[in-house]
Design a protein that fits this description.
heterodimer, A: mainly alpha, Four Helix Bundle (Hemerythrin (Met), subunit A), 3 domains, B: mainly alpha, two-stranded antiparallel sheet
Chain lengths: 188, 328
């Protein structure tokens, strides 16, 4: 049963991400990326890591993809996009890297036979507790560094976006509105 | 193992059928309640008290022509309603609907998948429900649809933070993510209910829940007066019906979540047995959504973002901070 689910999810994930990469249509790419993210959470559920699976759902499917799709609003989603591959060397290099990656992936089961968990989860702790224990003991420093990085990113985002935060677009008085239309015309 | 699979499948089918039927009945209730609040009669011609209106509507929905617009992206256009309906029912899978009961000597636990991270799973599944309206709006080559899906993204980016942060404070008190643990933590009667300890979190969760289910005052993605029907403009027949079923299933899910997390879940109150207690609570929250729809105008998108990010989120963080200090 688990094997069946694993192979089903693997095929679906690879197929969906291939669509993401190969499709010329923004809408197909976005949909298949989101669906692939959902199916990756399925792997976590198969492995018994319920917490990580749910976090995958909330963070990637929810937050990250919602931001992507908000960006997609500025494109015509029903039109095909012509891609330019101007740099042939880059394609060559990436192709070689993918081949190398495939070799590593297929040899991973052979090389990784003797792997044991360095920090086995304690008996009786359920999933979120096990994650919390590892996070706040072994990986405390990376965790804090990540937190500081996110804080820096957040402050930077506020500064970048907040330059004209105080004047709202909808409650502007007449004069300002005229100015805006003029400037828009100029741009066109 | 086989018994477990069969039991799960049966439960899933029962939940699917019952909730779909309730969604149909919900439309009748909504029209009737709204009508009485606005001094009208509502549906009254088909059957006694207009009860057969549901059946008439159902026949209409099933037999209506399924139109796909010419320039629409056919595949995505046809898949989008299924996403809404499916995620709504997937979210219901991790919710313990009733207390355990025994039928023919066989104990049934009315929860499809007893995850130990149930509450996060429900929120995550409902969050992925945003792709229904989003893709529907973008696939239909209609400007109202595009505006509808842009508003979906805005709505989602606004409420998601508030939902998560508001529910974090009760999670800290209970110390578990399982909805069954939430229920058991409030087993001591009305005085044990979480709402007395976390009134702020409850209000925040309720506001975010209204946004999550696209109910008035936050129904900005399909507000007729502004964007025709938003993401659902080009839909007809059963595909439109699937959006509708998904929305009502989401309402029921949020009502269950609110009563499980804040209002004692399916614990018996005095002489009222557990299963009746939770039905009463869920019905109350369902009625509350209709009540609010009849009473309040809806907000603009920028007002919603202002509300969520500048008012509700700071309150939620303060609430978590105070809860943490008290718990320490």
């Amino acid at each position: 049963m688990e094997q069946f689910a694993f192979y089903l999810f693997s095929v679906l994930t690879i197929g969906l991400f291939l669509v993401t990469v190969l499709s010329n249509n923004v809408l197909y790419a976005m949909t298949s990326l989101a669906a692939g993210m959902v199916i990756i959470s399925g792997f976590f559920f198969i492995l018994g890591a319920d917490f990580l699976g749910v976090v995958q759902l909330i963070v990637y499917v929810g937050a990250v993809m919602a931001l992507y799709s908000f960006g997609m609003m500025f494109f015509d989603a029903t039109r095909e996009i012509k891609e330019k591959n101007s740099n042939a060397y880059l394609v060559f290099f990436l192709g070689g890297m993918i081949a190398l990656l495939l070799v590593v992936m297929f040899s991973a089961p052979i090389m990784g036979e003797g792997i044991v968990a360095m920090y086995p989860s304690p008996e009786g702790a359920n999933n979120p507790q096990a994650v919390g224990l590892v996070l706040f003991t072994k990986y405390l420093v990376p965790f804090e560094v990540a937190a500081v990085m996110l804080l820096v990113a957040m402050i930077a985002g506020i500064i970048l976006a907040g330059k004209k935060m105080d004047d709202s677009l909808t409650t502007k008085d007449e004069n300002h509105e005229e100015e805006m239309t003029f400037s828009l015309k100029d741009v066109r | 193992m086989d018994a477990l699979i069969i039991e799960t499948v049966v439960k899933a089918i029962v939940v699917l059928l019952v909730i779909s039927a309730l969604a149909g009945f919900g439309t009748y209730l909504e029209r009737k309640v709204l009508a009485f609040m606005q001094r009208r009669l509502g549906p009254m011609h088909v059957g006694p008290f207009g009860l057969l209106q549901i059946l008439a509507d159902g026949i209409k929905l099933f037999t209506k022509e399924d139109i796909v617009p010419q320039h629409a992206n056919r595949l995505i256009f046809m898949v989008a309603p299924a996403i809404t309906a499916a995620t709504a029912f997937i979210a219901l899978a991790a919710i313990p609907l009733f207390p355990e009961f025994t039928i023919f000597g066989y104990t049934i636990r009315p929860i499809i998948a007893d995850l130990n991270v149930g509450i996060l799973f429900v929120l995550g599944a409902m969050a992925s429900g945003l792709y229904g309206p989003l893709l529907a709006g973008m696939a239909q080559a209609n400007k109202w649809g595009i505006i509808g899906s842009a508003r979906t993204a805005i709505l989602f980016l606004s409420y998601e933070v508030v939902t998560g942060l508001s529910i974090l404070a009760p999670i800290m008190i209970v110390g578990s993510l399982s909805l069954i643990d939430f229920n058991n933590a409030q087993a001591g009667g009305v005085s044990d209910w979480m709402v007395w300890k976390q009134p702020v979190a409850f209000v925040l969760f309720l506001i975010a829940g209204f946004a999550e289910t696209n109910r008035t005052p936050f129904d900005l993605l399909e507000h007729e007066a502004e964007v025709i029907s938003g993401y659902a403009t080009e839909y007809s027949g059963m595909r439109w019906g699937m959006f509708f079923i998904g929305e009502y299933a989401n309402m029921i899910t949020v009502a269950f979540l609110a009563s499980l997390v804040f209002f004692g879940g399916f614990n018996p109150i005095g002489f009222i047995p557990g299963f009746l207690a939770i039905i009463l609570k869920v019905s109350f929250f369902f009625f509350l959504m209709l009540w609010v729809r009849a009473s309040w105008p809806h907000v603009r998108p920028d007002q919603l973002m202002w509300l969520c990010w500048k008012v509700l989120m700071p309150i939620a963080i303060l609430n978590i901070l105070i809860t943490g200090i008290v718990l320490l």
